[in-house]
Amino acid sequence: MKILVTGAAGFIGFFVAKSLLENGHTVVGLDNINDYYDVNLKYDRLKELGISKSDAEVFNKIATSTSNSQFSFIRLNLEDREHLPLLFKDQAFDKVCNLAAQAGVRYSLENPEAYVDSNVVGFLNILECCRHYKIKHLVYASSSSVYGLNEKIPFETSDNVDHPISLYAATKKSNELMAHTYAHLYGFKTTGLRFFTVYGPWGRPDMAMFLFTDAIVNNKPIKVFNNGKLERDFTYIDDITEGVVRIIQKPVTEQLEGESLFKIYNIGNSKSVKLMDFISAIEESLGKQAKKDMYPMQPGDVERTWANVDDLIVDYNYSPNTPIKTGVQSFVDWYKEYYIN
Predict the structure, then answer these.
(1) By C-alpha distance, which of 206, 240, 7 is closest to 122?
(2) Residues with catalytic annotation?
(3) Which among 20, 125, 157, 177 is most buried, taking Cβ atoms within 10 Å?
(4) What's the pLDDT tens digit per position in 132-173?
Protein backbone atom coordinates (compact mmCIF):
# COMPACT_ATOMS: atom_id res chain seq x y z
CA MET A 1 0.00 0.00 0.00
CA LYS A 2 0.94 3.64 -0.29
CA ILE A 3 0.58 5.25 3.12
CA LEU A 4 0.88 8.83 4.34
CA VAL A 5 2.42 9.09 7.81
CA THR A 6 2.13 12.57 9.30
CA GLY A 7 4.47 13.49 12.13
CA ALA A 8 7.15 11.31 10.49
CA ALA A 9 10.00 13.26 12.08
CA GLY A 10 8.39 12.79 15.49
CA PHE A 11 8.96 10.04 18.02
CA ILE A 12 6.12 7.65 17.18
CA GLY A 13 5.83 8.69 13.52
CA PHE A 14 9.48 7.84 12.88
CA PHE A 15 9.09 4.29 14.20
CA VAL A 16 5.78 3.71 12.41
CA ALA A 17 7.22 4.88 9.08
CA LYS A 18 10.28 2.65 9.59
CA SER A 19 8.15 -0.39 10.41
CA LEU A 20 5.79 0.14 7.45
CA LEU A 21 8.80 0.31 5.13
CA GLU A 22 10.17 -2.92 6.60
CA ASN A 23 6.77 -4.48 5.85
CA GLY A 24 7.13 -3.56 2.17
CA HIS A 25 4.84 -0.53 1.95
CA THR A 26 5.52 2.74 0.18
CA VAL A 27 5.52 5.60 2.70
CA VAL A 28 5.31 9.36 2.34
CA GLY A 29 6.32 11.10 5.56
CA LEU A 30 5.03 14.56 6.42
CA ASP A 31 6.18 16.87 9.22
CA ASN A 32 6.51 20.61 9.78
CA ILE A 33 9.60 20.13 12.00
CA ASN A 34 8.53 22.82 14.47
CA ASP A 35 10.83 23.91 17.28
CA TYR A 36 8.75 22.68 20.22
CA TYR A 37 11.86 20.66 21.05
CA ASP A 38 15.35 20.30 19.53
CA VAL A 39 14.90 20.08 15.77
CA ASN A 40 18.24 18.29 15.41
CA LEU A 41 16.71 15.19 16.96
CA LYS A 42 13.95 15.35 14.32
CA TYR A 43 16.47 15.76 11.51
CA ASP A 44 18.48 12.83 12.86
CA ARG A 45 15.39 10.61 12.87
CA LEU A 46 14.81 11.51 9.23
CA LYS A 47 18.47 10.85 8.51
CA GLU A 48 17.91 7.29 9.76
CA LEU A 49 15.25 7.04 7.02
CA GLY A 50 17.62 8.41 4.36
CA ILE A 51 16.46 12.04 4.22
CA SER A 52 19.17 14.70 4.49
CA LYS A 53 18.75 17.78 6.64
CA SER A 54 19.05 20.05 3.60
CA ASP A 55 16.19 18.21 1.88
CA ALA A 56 14.05 18.18 5.03
CA GLU A 57 14.42 21.92 5.54
CA VAL A 58 12.59 22.81 2.32
CA PHE A 59 8.84 23.41 2.58
CA ASN A 60 6.34 21.89 0.13
CA LYS A 61 8.89 19.86 -1.83
CA ILE A 62 9.01 16.07 -1.78
CA ALA A 63 12.43 14.51 -1.16
CA THR A 64 13.14 10.83 -1.81
CA SER A 65 15.19 8.76 0.63
CA THR A 66 18.72 7.91 -0.47
CA SER A 67 18.61 4.57 1.38
CA ASN A 68 15.06 3.41 0.61
CA SER A 69 13.34 4.55 -2.57
CA GLN A 70 9.99 3.55 -1.06
CA PHE A 71 10.22 6.45 1.40
CA SER A 72 9.83 10.13 0.59
CA PHE A 73 9.35 13.15 2.80
CA ILE A 74 7.61 16.52 2.57
CA ARG A 75 7.86 19.40 5.02
CA LEU A 76 4.36 20.77 5.30
CA ASN A 77 1.94 22.19 7.87
CA LEU A 78 -1.35 20.38 8.35
CA GLU A 79 -2.98 23.82 8.51
CA ASP A 80 -1.88 24.47 4.91
CA ARG A 81 -5.19 24.24 3.05
CA GLU A 82 -3.51 24.95 -0.28
CA HIS A 83 -0.73 22.37 -0.42
CA LEU A 84 -2.17 19.50 1.62
CA PRO A 85 -4.93 18.70 -0.93
CA LEU A 86 -2.35 18.93 -3.74
CA LEU A 87 -0.26 16.31 -1.94
CA PHE A 88 -3.24 13.96 -1.66
CA LYS A 89 -4.14 14.50 -5.32
CA ASP A 90 -0.59 13.88 -6.51
CA GLN A 91 0.22 10.85 -4.37
CA ALA A 92 -3.07 8.88 -4.37
CA PHE A 93 -2.65 7.36 -0.91
CA ASP A 94 -4.39 4.12 0.04
CA LYS A 95 -4.35 4.91 3.77
CA VAL A 96 -3.39 7.72 6.10
CA CYS A 97 -1.82 7.53 9.57
CA ASN A 98 -2.10 10.92 11.28
CA LEU A 99 0.43 11.14 14.10
CA ALA A 100 1.23 14.84 13.66
CA ALA A 101 0.06 17.03 16.51
CA GLN A 102 1.24 19.71 18.86
CA ALA A 103 2.21 17.55 21.81
CA GLY A 104 2.54 18.19 25.53
CA VAL A 105 -0.06 18.72 28.25
CA ARG A 106 1.74 21.48 30.15
CA TYR A 107 2.77 23.41 27.04
CA SER A 108 -0.91 23.64 26.07
CA LEU A 109 -1.46 25.86 29.10
CA GLU A 110 1.03 28.38 27.70
CA ASN A 111 0.40 28.20 23.95
CA PRO A 112 -3.22 27.20 23.35
CA GLU A 113 -3.31 28.61 19.81
CA ALA A 114 -0.67 26.12 18.61
CA TYR A 115 -2.90 23.23 19.71
CA VAL A 116 -5.99 24.51 17.96
CA ASP A 117 -4.04 25.21 14.75
CA SER A 118 -2.36 21.80 14.54
CA ASN A 119 -4.67 19.46 16.40
CA VAL A 120 -8.07 20.84 15.37
CA VAL A 121 -7.67 22.84 12.14
CA GLY A 122 -4.96 20.49 10.90
CA PHE A 123 -7.03 17.41 11.69
CA LEU A 124 -10.04 18.87 9.91
CA ASN A 125 -7.87 19.35 6.82
CA ILE A 126 -6.78 15.72 7.02
CA LEU A 127 -10.40 14.58 7.26
CA GLU A 128 -11.39 16.73 4.30
CA CYS A 129 -8.56 15.33 2.19
CA CYS A 130 -9.48 11.77 3.18
CA ARG A 131 -13.06 12.50 2.17
CA HIS A 132 -12.33 14.07 -1.21
CA TYR A 133 -9.52 11.72 -2.24
CA LYS A 134 -11.30 8.49 -1.27
CA ILE A 135 -8.93 7.28 1.45
CA LYS A 136 -9.85 3.75 2.56
CA HIS A 137 -8.81 4.10 6.18
CA LEU A 138 -7.63 6.89 8.49
CA VAL A 139 -5.69 5.84 11.60
CA TYR A 140 -5.01 8.73 13.99
CA ALA A 141 -3.40 9.39 17.35
CA SER A 142 -5.60 10.18 20.30
CA SER A 143 -4.36 10.11 23.89
CA SER A 144 -4.97 8.65 27.32
CA SER A 145 -5.33 12.26 28.48
CA VAL A 146 -8.93 12.25 27.20
CA TYR A 147 -9.89 10.25 30.31
CA GLY A 148 -9.24 13.33 32.44
CA LEU A 149 -10.12 12.81 36.08
CA ASN A 150 -11.89 9.48 35.55
CA GLU A 151 -11.57 7.51 38.77
CA LYS A 152 -12.60 4.08 37.44
CA ILE A 153 -9.49 2.00 36.83
CA PRO A 154 -8.44 0.67 34.37
CA PHE A 155 -9.60 3.11 31.69
CA GLU A 156 -11.90 1.56 29.09
CA THR A 157 -12.81 2.97 25.69
CA SER A 158 -16.47 2.84 26.74
CA ASP A 159 -15.82 5.25 29.64
CA ASN A 160 -17.21 8.77 29.55
CA VAL A 161 -14.51 11.19 28.38
CA ASP A 162 -16.44 14.46 28.53
CA HIS A 163 -14.28 16.07 31.21
CA PRO A 164 -10.74 16.73 29.89
CA ILE A 165 -8.52 18.83 32.17
CA SER A 166 -6.08 20.23 29.60
CA LEU A 167 -6.52 21.85 26.22
CA TYR A 168 -4.32 19.13 24.71
CA ALA A 169 -6.78 16.51 25.96
CA ALA A 170 -9.71 18.56 24.67
CA THR A 171 -8.19 18.69 21.17
CA LYS A 172 -7.71 14.92 21.18
CA LYS A 173 -11.31 14.38 22.26
CA SER A 174 -12.39 16.72 19.47
CA ASN A 175 -10.42 14.60 16.97
CA GLU A 176 -12.43 11.55 18.00
CA LEU A 177 -15.72 13.42 17.62
CA MET A 178 -14.71 14.80 14.23
CA ALA A 179 -13.58 11.36 13.02
CA HIS A 180 -16.88 9.85 14.12
CA THR A 181 -18.78 12.51 12.19
CA TYR A 182 -16.81 11.99 8.99
CA ALA A 183 -17.02 8.19 9.22
CA HIS A 184 -20.79 8.49 9.59
CA LEU A 185 -21.33 11.11 6.88
CA TYR A 186 -18.86 9.99 4.25
CA GLY A 187 -18.43 6.28 4.84
CA PHE A 188 -14.68 5.87 5.27
CA LYS A 189 -13.02 3.98 8.12
CA THR A 190 -11.48 5.88 11.03
CA THR A 191 -9.56 4.34 13.93
CA GLY A 192 -8.43 6.42 16.90
CA LEU A 193 -5.62 5.18 19.14
CA ARG A 194 -5.38 6.37 22.73
CA PHE A 195 -1.66 6.12 23.52
CA PHE A 196 -0.54 5.68 27.13
CA THR A 197 2.77 7.37 28.17
CA VAL A 198 5.04 6.22 25.35
CA TYR A 199 8.77 5.96 26.04
CA GLY A 200 11.87 4.48 24.44
CA PRO A 201 14.88 5.28 22.19
CA TRP A 202 14.60 8.47 20.12
CA GLY A 203 12.01 9.74 22.62
CA ARG A 204 11.00 13.37 23.06
CA PRO A 205 13.22 15.53 25.32
CA ASP A 206 10.18 16.96 27.13
CA MET A 207 9.02 13.58 28.43
CA ALA A 208 9.78 12.10 31.85
CA MET A 209 12.03 9.27 30.60
CA PHE A 210 14.35 11.73 28.87
CA LEU A 211 14.19 14.46 31.51
CA PHE A 212 15.03 12.09 34.35
CA THR A 213 17.85 10.34 32.52
CA ASP A 214 19.41 13.58 31.29
CA ALA A 215 19.27 15.18 34.73
CA ILE A 216 20.78 12.18 36.52
CA VAL A 217 23.61 11.86 33.98
CA ASN A 218 24.41 15.57 34.34
CA ASN A 219 24.20 15.62 38.14
CA LYS A 220 21.11 17.81 38.20
CA PRO A 221 18.04 17.27 40.38
CA ILE A 222 14.93 15.79 38.84
CA LYS A 223 11.50 17.35 39.35
CA VAL A 224 9.13 14.86 40.97
CA PHE A 225 5.55 16.10 40.83
CA ASN A 226 2.77 15.38 43.34
CA ASN A 227 5.58 14.37 45.70
CA GLY A 228 6.05 11.19 43.70
CA LYS A 229 2.50 9.98 44.22
CA LEU A 230 1.82 9.38 40.52
CA GLU A 231 1.27 6.22 38.50
CA ARG A 232 1.49 5.80 34.75
CA ASP A 233 0.84 3.05 32.24
CA PHE A 234 4.27 3.34 30.60
CA THR A 235 4.22 1.82 27.10
CA TYR A 236 7.39 0.97 25.18
CA ILE A 237 7.71 2.42 21.68
CA ASP A 238 8.05 -0.97 19.94
CA ASP A 239 4.73 -2.06 21.46
CA ILE A 240 3.02 1.11 20.28
CA THR A 241 4.49 0.72 16.80
CA GLU A 242 3.38 -2.90 16.52
CA GLY A 243 -0.18 -1.97 17.45
CA VAL A 244 -0.35 0.95 15.02
CA VAL A 245 1.07 -1.04 12.11
CA ARG A 246 -1.25 -4.00 12.70
CA ILE A 247 -4.26 -1.69 12.61
CA ILE A 248 -3.06 0.12 9.48
CA GLN A 249 -2.44 -3.13 7.64
CA LYS A 250 -5.70 -4.82 8.59
CA PRO A 251 -8.41 -2.63 10.13
CA VAL A 252 -10.91 -4.57 12.18
CA THR A 253 -13.71 -3.24 10.01
CA GLU A 254 -12.32 -5.42 7.24
CA GLN A 255 -12.32 -8.45 9.52
CA LEU A 256 -15.70 -8.42 11.23
CA GLU A 257 -19.06 -8.01 9.53
CA GLY A 258 -21.40 -5.37 10.86
CA GLU A 259 -18.70 -3.36 12.63
CA SER A 260 -18.93 0.41 12.76
CA LEU A 261 -16.63 2.41 10.51
CA PHE A 262 -15.54 4.27 13.65
CA LYS A 263 -13.26 2.51 16.14
CA ILE A 264 -11.29 3.55 19.23
CA TYR A 265 -8.58 1.51 20.96
CA ASN A 266 -6.38 1.95 24.01
CA ILE A 267 -2.74 1.05 23.40
CA GLY A 268 -1.05 0.67 26.77
CA ASN A 269 0.95 -1.86 28.76
CA SER A 270 -2.08 -2.73 30.93
CA LYS A 271 -0.11 -1.99 34.08
CA SER A 272 0.05 1.06 36.30
CA VAL A 273 3.65 1.69 37.42
CA LYS A 274 4.45 3.95 40.36
CA LEU A 275 6.52 6.97 39.33
CA MET A 276 9.08 6.25 42.07
CA ASP A 277 9.52 2.69 40.74
CA PHE A 278 10.05 4.11 37.25
CA ILE A 279 12.73 6.44 38.61
CA SER A 280 14.34 3.50 40.43
CA ALA A 281 14.54 1.56 37.15
CA ILE A 282 16.36 4.51 35.53
CA GLU A 283 18.74 4.78 38.50
CA GLU A 284 19.48 1.07 38.25
CA SER A 285 20.15 1.24 34.51
CA LEU A 286 22.47 4.23 34.96
CA GLY A 287 24.09 2.90 38.13
CA LYS A 288 23.53 6.29 39.69
CA GLN A 289 21.12 7.81 42.21
CA ALA A 290 18.89 10.73 41.33
CA LYS A 291 18.74 13.97 43.27
CA LYS A 292 15.02 14.51 43.77
CA ASP A 293 13.20 17.82 44.18
CA MET A 294 9.60 17.29 45.22
CA TYR A 295 6.87 19.46 43.70
CA PRO A 296 3.07 19.64 44.05
CA MET A 297 0.68 18.40 41.39
CA GLN A 298 0.91 20.29 38.11
CA PRO A 299 -2.15 21.78 36.38
CA GLY A 300 -3.49 19.45 33.71
CA ASP A 301 -1.88 16.32 35.19
CA VAL A 302 -3.70 13.27 36.53
CA GLU A 303 -2.62 10.99 39.36
CA ARG A 304 -2.98 7.65 37.60
CA THR A 305 -3.39 6.10 34.15
CA TRP A 306 -4.02 2.45 33.33
CA ALA A 307 -5.21 1.02 30.01
CA ASN A 308 -7.74 -1.72 29.46
CA VAL A 309 -6.74 -3.24 26.11
CA ASP A 310 -9.33 -6.03 25.91
CA ASP A 311 -10.66 -4.70 22.59
CA LEU A 312 -7.18 -4.79 21.09
CA ILE A 313 -6.71 -8.37 22.26
CA VAL A 314 -10.10 -9.50 20.90
CA ASP A 315 -9.78 -7.77 17.52
CA TYR A 316 -6.05 -8.18 16.88
CA ASN A 317 -4.83 -10.82 19.33
CA TYR A 318 -2.34 -8.22 20.49
CA SER A 319 -1.35 -6.63 23.78
CA PRO A 320 1.77 -4.56 24.61
CA ASN A 321 3.98 -6.44 27.06
CA THR A 322 7.53 -5.03 27.26
CA PRO A 323 8.65 -5.04 30.94
CA ILE A 324 9.50 -1.61 32.32
CA LYS A 325 13.10 -2.54 33.16
CA THR A 326 13.70 -3.82 29.62
CA GLY A 327 12.30 -0.67 28.05
CA VAL A 328 14.18 1.65 30.40
CA GLN A 329 17.48 -0.11 29.72
CA SER A 330 16.90 0.21 25.99
CA PHE A 331 16.33 3.96 26.31
CA VAL A 332 19.38 4.45 28.54
CA ASP A 333 21.57 2.53 26.06
CA TRP A 334 20.33 4.74 23.22
CA TYR A 335 20.78 7.93 25.26
CA LYS A 336 24.41 7.07 26.04
CA GLU A 337 25.16 6.26 22.40
CA TYR A 338 23.43 9.36 21.01
CA TYR A 339 24.46 11.98 23.57
CA ILE A 340 27.62 10.69 25.24
CA ASN A 341 29.55 8.28 23.01
Answers:
(1) 7
(2) 168
(3) 20
(4) 999 999 999 999 999 998 889 999 999 999 999 989 999 999
